[in-house]
Each structure stands twice: as structure tokens, then as C-alpha cells.
Give the backbone structure.
Amino acid sequence: MDRRWQQIQRIFCFFILCLSLSGCAASGPTVSLDKSQDFKEIDSFFVKSPLNSVNPTLENSIAQDITSALSEKGLSSTTENLADVVVSFFPYTETKEGGAQLNIGLGTGTFGRSGAIMLGGVLSVPVGEQFTDYQNLQIEVINKSTVIYSASGSIEIESNDVIAVQQALNQLVLSLLDSYPSIKDK
């Protein structure tokens, strides 16, 4: 019986470890790339304004950041009619509830000659409410109505300062387009 209990504990610990590692892996950008697309054939792009236009100033900044990032990859910006691909982006904000918790362990037990009785538990007490704002962004590169590159990610908004948000979004755009294939080596 004791050996079986140890096996159950090992399996449980392994399961918890896997869950915690998968939570860490989900925090970076998510990128999808069409492997059948020859990206060296793409020379030009057009950045299309989002359909859900909420903040034109922020959207113009994102469009400029996308243009700069793709230009660094060797592509040139042009009009929609002349572009090889159209780049669309979808910014949105999200508020997640979180907060600090104080964990208190409670327990009692009796250990006797013929057996043991244990009683225990953990009590989690919330300490204040916290809400965290996130700016999410999805970028898609579309070639003839087919999405050939898609990337999405989010950043935590730590301040309501517009300049700080724009700088953070600039870093997000760079991280989302980092995996886009460069054509400079054509």
C-alpha cells in the first residue's frame, strides 16, 4: 500500500510539473507560418487598417512599426493594388483579474501504533483585488486570400502613458514579426 501511495504521489508531482511548464510556454508570441509559401517571391506589402478601429493614433503607430519591421526584412511598402501581400492587424485590450493571495496551512494529526489519522488543509485568503490590462495584437500576412503568416501576442500595460504604451507595442510588433522570413539574401 505504501509503495502504491508513493507511485500516486510521483504521478501527481509529474502532472503538476507538466502543467507549470506548459503555462510558461504559453506566455510568448504564437506564430503560424505557411511552409508551402515561397517567401522569396514576395517583394512588396500593404498594411491595411483594422476593421475594429478604436484608437487611430495607436493604430497609425502600429502600422508604422509593421512597415519598419517588414522593410528591415527586405520588403517594400506600396499601394494595395500593387502589393504582393496585404498585412492586416487586429489590436484589442483585455483586462484579467488577479491578485495576491495569502496561503495559510492548517493541520493536525495523530500517529499511533496501529495507524494514523491526519487532517490538514490550505486556506487561501485574497489580499486586495488586482486587475491587469493587456494590449493584445494579431498580425496576419495574406497572399491572394490565403493567410501565409500569422502571429499574435500580448503585453501588460503598466501605465496609461500613451508614449509608454506605444513603445511597448513597438516591442510587441518586433517580436511578432521576428520569425517572418527575411528576403534580403535573395
About this structure: The chain has three helices and six strands.
